[in-house]
Write a structure and sequence with these properties.
By secondary structure, the protein is mostly helical. The protein has two domains: 119 residues, Death Domain, Fas, CATH 1.10.533.10; 88 residues, Death Domain, Fas (Orthogonal Bundle), CATH 1.10.533.10. The chain contains 15 helices and no strands. This is Hypp9010 protein.
């Protein structure tokens, strides 16, 4: 019964205070993993959002409103893991015992969710097949591209049509290679629209000497 309560919309806000405290400056990473990158500019522009915690709280409210009944704690916990915010997940389980119950059949409460998130990613990225790659939203591949290629993000940017001024702008805006790569990929997708396809991204990876990564992602 506790698991059911966790999965419903009712009462989900009780977790938001702890989540915003833990996520804080990494709220944009969470936004990306919740498929809400398109809301980032809007959230940042609000004068009422004076710091990262308030922006994160606004993000969670937008997510809950947009997703409706699909806005469950299970989805949110998996998004936190995907954003590499394991410490936030651990803190939530420590503070709210009810969050441990769906995974309580295992000796380790964190392992099933972590494994499930990893398996889902691997299935989506490496076993999807040619037909799916042709129709997939290219942003579904971004996490693995960032993981494998962020150290060459500027080379990838050039292959995707960014000029030197745009690359410098991203370098100034973002403090590390992972965030620079993510920012660049989202700008490319938003700029190119339907032309930003998995096939184009795969060819760009091959062109910068990342054929192994390209082949592993786009089977």
């Amino acid at each position: 019964m506790a698991g059911k309560q966790q999965g419903s919309r009712e009462g989900i806000e009780k977790y938001f205070f702890s989540i915003k405290k833990g996520v804080s400056k990494d709220w944009k990473d969470l936004a990306d993993c919740l498929d809400l990158w398109d809301e980032v500019d809007n959230i940042e522009s609000k004068t009422s959002n004076r710091d990262d915690e308030s922006r994160c709280r606004d993000l969670l409210a937008v997510w809950k409103t947009r997703k409706g009944d699909a806005a469950t704690m299970e989805v949110l916990m998996e998004a936190l893991l995907k954003a590499r915010l394991q410490s936030v997940v651990d803190g939530l389980r420590e503070e709210f015992p009810d969050l441990r119950e769906p995974q309580s059949s295992s000796s380790s409460s964190s392992q099933p969710l972590t494994s499930r998130g990893k398996d889902a990613s691997e299935i989506r990225l490496t076993k999807a097949g040619t037909d799916r790659a042709a129709t997939a939203d290219v942003n579904e591949y971004f996490d693995e591209v960032i993981k494998e290629v962020s150290h060459k993000w500027d080379d990838l940017a050039r292959k995707l049509g960014f000029n030197e001024n745009e690359i410098i702008g991203i370098e100034v805006l973002k403090r590390d290679t992972n965030r620079r790569c993510r920012e660049m990929l989202h700008r490319w997708r938003n700029r190119e629209g339907r032309e930003a396809t998995p096939q184009v991204l795969k060819q760009a990876l091959i062109d910068i000497g990342q054929k192994l990564t390209a082949d592993s992602l786009f089977v």
